[in-house]
TrEMBL record:
Belongs to the class-I aminoacyl-tRNA synthetase family. GluQ subfamily. Residues 4-244 form the Glutamyl/glutaminyl-tRNA synthetase class Ib catalytic domain. This is Glutamyl-Q tRNA(Asp) synthetase. L-glutamate binds at residues 6-10, 42, 181, 199. Its cofactor is Zn(2+).
Length: 292
């Protein structure tokens, strides 16, 4: 199958330096394999989206010479696909309605002596697995399969996670009616035929959940590569949430060179031919069936 990759930004603001690293890496990865590069605007979390940010992101990519091979798609226009996937999971017994608020979950964990937050998340204790007991449903959760999920990341190497104990049954549709990232990204990657996912290392923790969803829905599994992160002065991941400055593109080549340096690639004197050659040399083997 021909390589198909994607860059999937959330339009909560314009791209910043960390975003460009992921965009450049995904573009280089596809170009190295002679495949097709897509852009997907992940705007399912409407309240967090900034009006016009999607158009600004596309303009920023174009200024850097990163042009998608197919028209971009917007997740906000794909709700029917997510609903169909939810119904398939429901029919298979792999999802259920949940009446718990964060306060309810924290209280139950405290009652069990397990009030420990994981990256700001509360590990769901399975309160509604056996039914709502007369309470009103708020969200839909995926019924996680027990056991450890193993996978190979093309950069990070062998990975594993016991999703049941690390995360618990996770949300597919939120209490406010919005679709959760995990379901939307899995449905869209399969629908767009994505074979190679290249994204920031902060998203590596999501992979085991997505692998379980892919298995439950009978969807193909892409190959994953998680790139190094750009860090802020305080050592935290550079992000829009911690005030990352918008990408300045008065000199697109300088911005691309900064992104290439994070990826361990040489500086560019012009178009991205040198970076592409270096990427091919570094990752050629990982396109082969046994290359992970």
């Amino acid at each position: 199958m021909a390589c198909r990759g994607r860059f999937a930004p959330s339009p909560t603001g314009p791209l910043h330096a960390g975003s460009l690293v992921a965009a450049l890496a995904s573009w280089l990865d596809v170009r190295a394999a002679g495949g097709r590069w897509l852009v997907r605007i992940e705007d399912v979390d409407g309240p967090r989206c900034v009006p016009g940010a999607d158009r600004e992101i596309l303009a920023q990519l174009a200024a850097c010479g990163l042009h998608p091979d197919e028209p971009p798609v917007w997740q906000s226009q794909r709700g029917a696909l997510y609903e169909a996937a939810l119904q398939r999971l429901l029919a298979a017994g792999r999802c259920y309605p949940c009446a718990c608020s964060r306060k309810d979950i924290a209280a139950e964990l405290a009652r069990r002596g397990q009030a420990v937050q994981r990256h700001g998340e509360l590990v769901y204790p399975g309160t509604c697995r056996a039914g709502l007991h007369g309470r009103e449903p708020r969200a839909w959760r995926f019924r996680v399969a027990p056991g450890t999920v193993h996978w190979a990341d093309r950069r990070l190497g062998p990975q594993q996670q016991d999703v049941e104990h690390a995360v618990g049954d996770f949300v597919l549709r939120r209490a406010d009616g919005l679709w959760a990232y995990q379901l939307a990204v899995v449905v869209d990657d399969a629908g767009q035929g994505i074979t190679h996912v290249v994204r920031g290392e902060d998203l590596a923790d999501n992979t085991a959940r997505q692998l379980q969803l892919q298995q439950a829905l009978g969807l193909p599994v892409p190959r994953y590569l998680h790139t190094p992160l750009v860090l802020a002065a305080d050592g935290q991941k550079l992000s829009k949430q911690n005030g990352a400055a918008p990408l300045q593109l008065r000199d697109p080549l300088a911005a691309l060179n900064a992104a290439a340096a994070v990826l361990g690639l040489p500086p560019q004197a012009g178009p991205l031919a040198d970076a592409l050659a270096a990427w091919v040399q570094a990752w050629r083997a990982s396109y082969n069936p046994g290359g992970d």
